[in-house]
């Protein structure tokens, strides 16, 4: 493991959701096997966290600076948390209200800028909820894009771009079989399970101050494992694993539509009318002003804001764990990606990312240019002696041909040892999309512009924008996003498996 400053050691959150049963098992593992297996679980979690940190090198660097610096580098780094309302993959597509708002903000940043090389792109960087503000202050992102409640404690650490129209209430939610709650004082002596480092935990502690003055037993505030978010906790309440939690009312109302055992106590509010917004560093006043201008124009209460809020918080048709279907679709072809990835020296998840970008993992796709199958290869390309697989109608032959062609591009055009592995991948993806001849022209132009022809991001991609427009730039960026997403999911799933193994001595815990 390469030594890094401590502020780089921030826990990343999985981009893909592990099924709910794993959340329950993790809870049991964390709570039930803490005696003899506690050290083993901690070691597994630490090892997995260190593995995850390796990924951040490819998606983010420590950088500070206000809006001018962001525009100069052409990238706004948005720190997000995976959530089935805020930010998630739906059949591989990035969705969620935060993602959609950020796309709208990207349009505002680029309004009137016709030259594609001068536009600013939003890059999503997933982190655990309790790392949003630390990651922001450490320079790993430019904005923490979540509906964060403005509290005195948070205002001591960061600034906020907020709107008066964006307010929330924090309400108590319990399981239908839990003891009745007639008032907040009925929480005295009870265990309440809430999101880690949340305003809910802050407000419960303030409630405890009043309880002590009245001679009541304090609430036992239990902050959840950092891998869990509010919807995970609501699922636990619904399953009877947890009796009581506190969440924002709009989120509770959404999930109550599909989690029938939840009881929402709108009369038991820990806080009401709280302002919420996106966090920025105190040293970014121009970015804050730009964000506030956007929130005023496009936030809740505006036309686009109301459309997005209705889509994600009123329509529940998409809520049936949208990423589970995507995970199954990846796994359907996973054995083939692994087989041919091993044969030609590729990570199977990288092949899955390419296949999703090309076809959405649909083997029945056919492009208007005649490309066919899951890897969207032209039959003439597949039949070429450099690939030599003339019939690609079968999914296995299609994946084999696409992988062999990627290997040919990599080995023929980007074998120079001066090119890093990450850039070799990106250049290979670009050639798969635009053809090796055009990538050769892109690299030549990059050198003429004083850019590094061996580095894709921020260098050859600038030249690509001038030669072929945004298509190839977007193509490579999308594959990189999906590849990182699949890697994060694999590493966090391995971490969770390690935690489950460590807690397997608890009779309540069974591995699926």
Labels describing this entry:
two-stranded antiparallel sheet; 50% helix; alpha/beta; disordered C terminus; 3 domains; Lysozyme; 512 residues; D-Maltodextrin-Binding Protein, domain 2; six-stranded mixed β-sheet; 14% strand
Walk me through the structure.
The radius of gyration is 24 Å and the shape is globular. It has 3 domains: 6-156 and 282-313, 3-Layer(aba) Sandwich (D-Maltodextrin-Binding Protein, domain 2); 166-276, 3-Layer(aba) Sandwich (D-Maltodextrin-Binding Protein, domain 2), CATH 3.40.190; 325-492, Lysozyme (Orthogonal Bundle), CATH 1.10.530. The chain has helices at residues 20-32, 38-59, 67-73, 97-109, 132-137, 152-155, 199-213, 230-239, 249-256, 285-298, 303-313, 322-332, 334-344, 348-359, 379-383, 395-413, 421-434, 436-448, 456-468, 470-502; strands at 75-80, 88-90, 93-95, 121-126, 143-149, 159-175, 191-194, 220-223, 244-248, 262-280. The strands form 3 sheets. The protein has a 6-stranded mixed sheet. A two-stranded antiparallel ribbon has the order 2-3. Helix 4 packs across helix 10 (285-298) and helix 13 packs across helix 14. It contains 20 helices and 10 strands. Strand 7 (191-194), helix 7 (199-213) and strand 8 (220-223) form a beta-alpha-beta unit. The protein has 512 residues and is α/β, with parallel strands linked by helices.
């Amino acid at each position: 493991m390469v030594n890094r400053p401590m502020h780089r050691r921030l826990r990343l959150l999985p981009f893909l959701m592990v099924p709910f049963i794993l959340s329950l098992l993790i809870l049991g593992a964390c709570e039930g096997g803490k005696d003899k297996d506690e050290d083993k679980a901690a070691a597994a979690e630490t090892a997995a966290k260190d593995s995850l940190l390796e990924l951040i090198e490819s998606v983010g660097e420590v950088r500070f600076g206000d809006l001018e610096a962001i525009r100069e580098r052409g990238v706004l780094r948005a720190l997000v948390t995976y959530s089935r309302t805020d930010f998630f993959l739906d059949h591989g597509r990035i969705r969620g209200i935060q993602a959609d708002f950020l796309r709208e903000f990207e349009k505002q940043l680029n309004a009137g800028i016709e030259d594609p090389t001068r536009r600013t792109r939003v890059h999503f960087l997933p982190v655990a909820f309790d790392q949003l503000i630390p990651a922001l202050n450490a320079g790993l992102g430019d904005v923490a894009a979540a509906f964060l409640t403005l509290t005195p404690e948070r205002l001591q650490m960061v600034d906020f771009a907020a709107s008066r129209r964006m307010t929330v209430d924090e309400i108590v939610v319990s399981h239908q079989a839990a003891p009745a709650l007639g008032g907040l004082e009925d929480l005295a002596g009870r265990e309440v399970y809430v999101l880690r480092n949340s305003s809910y935990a802050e407000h419960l502690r303030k409630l405890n101050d009043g309880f002590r003055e009245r001679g009541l037993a304090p609430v036992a505030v239990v902050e959840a494992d950092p891998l869990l978010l509010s919807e995970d906790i609501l699922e636990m309440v619904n399953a009877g694993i947890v009796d009581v939690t506190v969440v924002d009312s709009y989120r509770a109302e959404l999930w109550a539509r599909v989690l029938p055992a939840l009881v929402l106590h709108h009369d038991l509010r820990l806080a009401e009318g709280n302002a919420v917004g996106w966090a920025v560093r105190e040293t970014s006043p121009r970015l804050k002003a730009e964000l506030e201008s956007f929130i005023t124009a496009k936030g809740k209460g505006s036309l686009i804001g109301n459309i997005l809020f209705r889509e994600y918080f009123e329509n529940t048709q998409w809520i049936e764990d949208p990423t589970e279907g995507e995970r199954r679709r990846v796994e359907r072809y996973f054995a083939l990606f692994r087989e041919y990835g091993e044969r030609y020296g590729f990570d199977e998840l990288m092949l899955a990312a390419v296949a999703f970008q090309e076809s959405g993992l649909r083997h029945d796709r056919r492009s208007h240019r005649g490309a066919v199958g899951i890897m969207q290869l032209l039959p003439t390309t597949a039949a070429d002696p450099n690939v030599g697989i003339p019939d690609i109608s079968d999914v296995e032959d299609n994946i084999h041909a696409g992988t062999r062609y990627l290997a040919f591009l990599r080995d023929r055009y980007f074998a120079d040892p001066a090119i890093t592995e990450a850039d070799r991948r990106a250049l290979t993806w670009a050639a798969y999309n635009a053809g090796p001849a055009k990538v050769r022209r892109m690299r030549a132009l990059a050198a003429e512009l004083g850019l590094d022809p061996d580095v894709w991001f921020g260098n050859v991609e600038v030249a690509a924008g001038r030669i072929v427009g945004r298509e190839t730039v977007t193509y490579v960026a999308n594959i990189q996003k999906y590849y990182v997403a699949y890697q994060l999911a694999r590493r966090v799933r391995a971490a969770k498996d390690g935690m489950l193994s460590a807690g397997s001595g608890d009779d309540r815990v069974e591995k699926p």
